[in-house]
């Protein structure tokens, strides 16, 4: 029998489609920035007040709920608010929203560059990764808001690009290491999750130094520069948190059991079975553990929003990534009533995200195995799965240390810096499956295109 041929469509078509996706993404984020109310986003009131206070009073507002957030974005955002006021804009926060939209597009471009470095020549993988990122609701929702997360995502992705280039080209020069250290240090001055990227790069550089004896000295030298520069840049902020709040990394005090209240019926909550309510440190260990293993079935499909789906770690991450668990996009502050049609739309989002999530998870497992097998020859591969794993561990730890009965500390927003890596895992799995034959390409790509269309329709505001 003749050998089965793999399906290899034109690489030029993949490049054209990638550019088209970037153009669509740019159009969507600009459109949404002028349609989405700045006051409706995650922590919107506190973020806007932080930015104004920082640039007018030149102090970090300790009285606000986001007092523990680094000032990097708010320094830029506050300047844009002042600029908007100076030129007579009716809503000066639009400039900050446009900035976040531009950062989302910039991150997608960096994702394409990262794919080209880590997977050279695999243009369809690059297209699939960019398409995943550009159609993922959590990316587009946050891009329309006045929020620091798109900036830390951009810086984290830039750091991954610089680290991947350094490792792939074996260029452990001083300039490259200093540039990488500046970027990872700057990311930590935007959001505390920037430390995840710092940890990933340190671990991968250290691993590369240990497994490659010929380049050990150069690699350790580059590692030392990255660590020194990254720490020096972020050190003033960590020192401030330590002095003010005795918590140098997160800056938040762990809530006491006495001040913690369980979920009660109301607009955002419904009576929940006691064993499904996530409680504070006073709860028995098995109840706290259930929060991390509860699959949320069947509510994750039938009622994927805060009134209907009991708080649990994975269900919240999933429904926030592909839908609107907390209601910041469809209703809530946007003043859009939650109707039965909105509820059906959110259920459709749960279904639409299933296949992309499955492929991304499969790609994560496969890429982790490949990275470990080729650790010496291609240490840059390890950056991708490690970024995802450390981000998930960080989200889990944050939810454990700062528990909230309504799951507020489990926003998929926190995973945003890992979304480019997740998109690469999706692209890796999709390219492997679709590349087997034309039939496999149709079987996989047609439903994926439908999922992308459903998600884009969900996040384009009318």
Account of the 3D structure:
This protein has helices at 11-35, 44-57, 72-86, 93-118, 123-135, 137-143, 149-169, 174-188, 194-211, 216-245, 285-293, 299-302, 313-322, 340-352, 354-373, 383-401, 419-434, 438-459. The protein has 462 residues and is an all-alpha fold. It is built from 18 helices and no strands. The N and C termini lie far apart (55 Å). The chain has one domain. Mean pLDDT is 88; it is low at 256-281.
Features:
462 residues; mainly alpha; 18 helices; 0% strand; globular
Q: Number of domains in the coordinates?
A: 1
Total number of strands: 0
**DSSP helix fraction:** 55-70%
Q: Give me the secondary-structure category.
A: mainly alpha
Spans where pLDDT lies below 50 across 5 or more residues: 256-281
Number of alpha- plus pi-helical segments: 18
Order of helices and strands: HHHHHHHHHHHHHHHHHH
Report the biggest beta sheet as strand number plus sense, adding barrel if it closes: none
Rg calc: 22 Å
List the helices and strands and how they pair.
Layout (H helix, E strand, L loop, with lengths): L10 H25 L8 H14 L14 H15 L6 H26 L4 H13 L1 H7 L5 H21 L4 H15 L5 H18 L4 H30 L39 H9 L5 H4 L10 H10 L17 H13 L1 H20 L9 H19 L17 H16 L3 H22 L3
Helix pairs in contact: 1-4, 1-5, 2-3, 3-4, 4-5, 4-6, 4-7, 4-17, 5-17, 5-18, 7-8, 7-9, 8-9, 8-10, 9-10, 9-16, 14-18, 15-16, 15-17, 16-17
Give a short overview.
By secondary structure, the chain is mostly helical. It has helices spanning 11-35, 44-57, 72-86, 93-118, 123-135, 137-143, 149-169, 174-188, 194-211, 216-245, 285-293, 299-302, 313-322, 340-352, 354-373, 383-401, 419-434, 438-459.
């Amino acid at each position: 029998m003749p050998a089965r041929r793999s399906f290899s469509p034109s690489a030029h078509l993949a490049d054209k489609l990638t550019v088209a996706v970037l153009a669509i993404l740019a159009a969507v984020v600009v459109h949404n920035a002028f349609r989405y109310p700045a006051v409706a986003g995650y922590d919107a009131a506190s973020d806007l007040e932080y930015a104004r206070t920082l640039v007018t009073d030149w102090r970090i507002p300790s009285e606000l709920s986001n007092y523990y957030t680094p000032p990097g974005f708010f320094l830029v955002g506050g300047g844009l608010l002042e600029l908007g006021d100076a030129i007579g804009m009716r809503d000066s926060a639009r400039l900050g929203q446009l900035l976040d939209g531009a950062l989302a597009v910039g991150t997608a471009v960096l994702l394409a560059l990262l794919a080209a470095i880590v997977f050279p020549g695999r243009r369809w993988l690059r297209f699939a990764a960019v398409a995943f990122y550009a159609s993922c609701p959590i990316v587009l929702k946050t891009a329309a808001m006045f929020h620091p997360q798109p900036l830390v995502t951009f810086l984290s992705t830039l750091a991954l690009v610089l680290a991947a280039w350094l490792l792939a080209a074996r260029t452990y020069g001083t300039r490259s290491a200093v540039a990488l250290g500046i970027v990872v240090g700057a990311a930590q001055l935007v959001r505390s999750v920037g430390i995840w990227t710092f940890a990933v790069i340190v671990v991968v550089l250290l691993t590369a130094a240990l497994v490659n004896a010929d380049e050990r000295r150069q690699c350790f030298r580059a590692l030392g520069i990255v660590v020194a520069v990254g720490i020096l840049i972020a050190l003033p902020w960590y020192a401030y948190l330590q002095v003010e709040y005795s918590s140098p990394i997160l800056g938040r005090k762990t809530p006491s059991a006495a001040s913690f209240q369980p979920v009660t019926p109301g607009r955002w909550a419904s009576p929940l079975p006691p064993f499904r309510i996530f409680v504070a440190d006073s709860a028995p260990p098995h109840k706290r553990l259930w929060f991390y293993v509860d699959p949320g079935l069947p509510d994750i499909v039938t009622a994927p929003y805060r009134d209907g789906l009991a708080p649990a770690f994975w269900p919240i991450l999933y429904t926030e990534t592909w839908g609107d668990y907390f209601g910041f996009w469809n209703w809530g502050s946007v003043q859009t009533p939650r109707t039965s049609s909105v509820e059906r739309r959110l259920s459709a989002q749960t279904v639409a995200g299933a296949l992309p999530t499955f492929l991304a998870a499969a790609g994560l497992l496969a890429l982790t195995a490949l990275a470990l097998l080729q650790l010496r020859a291609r240490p840059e591969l390890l950056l991708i799965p490690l970024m995802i794993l450390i981000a998930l561990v960080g989200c889990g730890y944050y939810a454990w240390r700062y528990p909230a009965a309504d799951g507020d500390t489990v926003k998929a927003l926190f995973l945003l810096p890992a979304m480019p890596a997740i998109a690469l895992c999706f692209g890796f799995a999709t390219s492997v499956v679709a590349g087997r034959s034309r039939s496999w390409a149709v079987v996989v790509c047609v439903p994926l295109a439908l999922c992308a269309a459903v998600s884009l329709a969900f996040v384009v505001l009318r």
